Structures are given as C-alpha cells and as structure tokens.
Amino acid sequence: MQTTQIFNCVTCPYPNPDASLRLFCFPYAGGSSLIFRRWLTNLPTTVEVCPIELPGRGIQMRLTPFSRLQPLIETLASALEPYLDKPFAFFGHSLGGLVSFELARQLRREHNLSPVHLFVSATRAPQIPSPKPPIHALPDTEFIEELHRFNGTPDSVLQNTELMQLLIPILRADFAVLETYVYAHQAPLECPITAFGGLQDEEVSLEELEGWRSHTIASYKLQMFNGDHFFIQSEQALFLQTLAEHLHALT
C-alpha cells in the first residue's frame, strides 16, 4: 500500500490574482510542469495557468512517484484545496486526463466542489480498458522500445543511458497508475466536458474519445487535430488557439 505524501504540487509561474478562472494542467506519463511553459503566455489574461508537478520530477524530484491512482487523487485533492477559492477548470493530457477526471469526482465526493469545465486530451474514456497489454513491468530494453512507439520522448533522451536511469522509475510508476486503474461507475459530472484527439493517434481512437460523452449531464464536445498521440506538441499553436477560445467563453 502506497502511503499518502504531502507535497505542494501546484505551480503558478505567473501569479495572476485578478484572474477570474484557474486552469490546472495535468501532464502525460513522464511529463513535468515544464511541458506547459509556453501555455502561460498564450492563453487569456483572465486565466491563471497552474501546471501540476507530480512527485519524482521538477521541484518534486525527491519524492517517490505514485504508482496507484487513488492515493495520488487523495493527495492532489488536499493539495489543491487552498487554490479552489475561485472558479477553476481542469486540463489533462493522456494520463493527465484520467487524473483530472478522477480528481473531479473526488472533489465532488469529499468537498462538493466541481470544475467549471473538464478538458481531456488524448485520453480514452475511463470505462474503456486499454486493448494493449501493460508495459510498466517490462524489462528496461523492452520498456524503452514501447516508449519509442509512443513518440512522446525524443530519441536523444531514450538513447541517453544516464538520463533514462533517472526517467525510467518515473515512467514505470506513471504507466502503473494507468495500467492498474479500475473504473468504478458513479453519477456523471455536472460540468461540461471537451475532449481533444489526434487524427493519427494510434493509442486512442475516435470511438474511445466519444466515450466521454456519458460522463457529463452538461454539454460535450469533441475536437480533432492533425497529429499522433502528442498533437498538443506538433500542432501546439492551433491547439492553444482553440483552447484559448474555449477559455474565453468561460471567463
């Protein structure tokens, strides 16, 4: 059983006390808050962008990464509570989408709080299990081969033995969070959900994205972009423009 850790996971590089909305951004497996650094100056000034730093990376480097979802969610709910004093929205990519969804359910259950909008990106609907076998326990060589297939980690990193010795424990833990997750049915969320996907994504299909429709009693929208699982990088300018339009509507 993994014990709950206390950590300050919320980063706000450009504090904006006059913002009318906080956007909490949850990274993909192996990702840190730095993946959102360009977002900070490309989204509306009415929004305070708050990337989440998970244990094992960035300013949380010394903490052990979570390998199960529920203790991670419980810890995040406690860490975010002081920041929920104004309207907030969640954005999560891949693993981050699942984390943000379960965190929204946790906040509803424990604090009767809800995001004003949930944005999920390259994340299959939680009730749909992955059709592929788990990879988090593979030997290092095979594990790295699978990471190469995802196309989210540069070859220069995958081929750097010293760097991979640091990254592999984080990546294994993150994939374990995904691959040991078991969906439990609960009432749909009351906030709108927007799902984003890549037209060439071989990891998450259009049908798996459409499954998010059943998780809200409010509006649901699906928008697709050119690109694979990491279209938020390859199509970043267009993606941020689209996200900014959604956020303008909320503020």
From TrEMBL:
InterPro entries: AB_hydrolase_fold, TEII, Thioesterase. Residues 22-249 form the Thioesterase domain. It holds the Pfam family Thioesterase. One of its GO terms (biological process) is lipid biosynthetic process. Signal peptide: none annotated. Belongs to the thioesterase family. This is Thioesterase. It comes from Hassallia byssoidea VB512170.
